[in-house]
Amino acid sequence: MTADRDSRREGPEAGPDREAARPSEAVGPASETEGPGPSVDELESEAEAGPGPAEQVQPAPVLPRRSLAAATARTWRERAIGGALFTAGALSILTTVGIVVVLVWESVAFFQRVPILEFLTGTRWTPLFLPQHFGVLPLVAGSVLVAVIAAAIAIPLGLGSAVYLSEYAPDRARRILKPVLEVLAGIPTVVYGYFALTFVTPILRSFIPGVGIFNALSAGVVVGIMVLPLIASLSEDAMSAVPRALRQGAYALGATKFEVATRVVTPAALSGIVASFILAISRAIGETMAVVLAAGMTPNLTLDPRESIQTMTAYIVQVSLGDTPFGSIEYRSIFAVGLALFVITLGMNVFGRWFLKRYREVYA
């Protein structure tokens, strides 16, 4: 009796221990009633029977007919856009191939009557007069002379403008000056020609003795002004692409703004700057109307910029006026001169691409 009372007194104190022991006591009988797990034969029979109704793979949802039609239309639209873009690219390539084929075909007919050595080394060009001479050197010299004068004017001014716009000009001034500078590229070339004839030439004749009315110097000046926006815009874009971290590092070492522009930014953007130079010179060599009006049509083999000269493009304009019989040697001389001009500009572009690839700086 005394032991029972003691056990009843200790009951509340030992309650938690008993409750903690109850789950283990409950697990024992349950585990005993579950019995052994499924045998290997039962598992194999279930695997052969396949998944149950709840485990079967549901079929993919069937899209509505409207969704299928929209997907089909989108596919055909993408194909049409791709075909249009391919056609545009193919047309440009076929146009270039067609130009080259025509130049080569007509030039072959020309060189069947004129030796190619005489054409490349002759110093007299008189295909429209008797006796006829077909030495292209006077035309090449005139084109090169105008291009050199134009480059001497456009490269320093264009590069200086690019440095100012990239490194010195505030954002507001850059947004105003760059579009104004690029307006020069939209002026018709015939306007430049009359500008040279009526404004530049009188000024040159006022302080340079011996300058004729038609001269290579005024033609080179206006062509240089014409290609100046090309150099300034492309060079400024190349300089703006130089990472800001290079400038900040130079400033941290104590460099001035001029030193950063000339010793850090310009060398880093050299490939793009040289590419703009080559593109501008190619444009100057191929310029037509401004040179025709300012320099005249006298095929002189000279390096004197005060004299009248004739460029390759000026001769093509002269013979293409409609007075030359079709299929004559004079007519085919146009294509021979055009082929020579094409080879010169192609060589300059190839050199520019090689230089760009060789000295291009890539920054992460």
Summarize the structure in words:
With 364 residues, the chain is an all-alpha fold. The chain has 15 helices and no strands. The protein has helices spanning 2-13, 15-34, 40-49, 65-111, 116-121, 137-168, 171-182, 189-207, 216-240, 244-252, 257-268, 270-285, 289-295, 312-319, 329-359. Helix 8 packs across helix 9, helix 9 (216-240) runs antiparallel to helix 12 and helix 9 (216-240) runs antiparallel to helix 13 (289-295). The N and C termini lie far apart (93 Å).
Topology summary:
Elements: H1 2-13, H2 15-34, H3 40-49, H4 65-111, H5 116-121, H6 137-168, H7 171-182, H8 189-207, H9 216-240, H10 244-252, H11 257-268, H12 270-285, H13 289-295, H14 312-319, H15 329-359
Helix pairs in contact: 4-15, 6-9, 6-12, 8-9, 8-13, 9-12, 9-13, 10-11, 12-15, 14-15
Number of helices: 15
Largest sheet: none
Structural class: mainly alpha
CATH superfamily of the domain at 116-359: MetI-like
CATH domain class of the domain at 116-359: Mainly Alpha
Binned, the helix content reads over 70%
What is the CATH topology classification name of the domain at 116-359? MetI-like fold
Total beta-strand segments: 0
List keywords for this structure.
364 residues, mainly alpha, MetI-like fold, 15 helices, 73% helix, disordered N terminus
Summary of the model, kept short:
The chain is 73% helix and 0% strand. It has 364 residues and is mostly helical. Mean pLDDT is 80; it is low at 1-35.
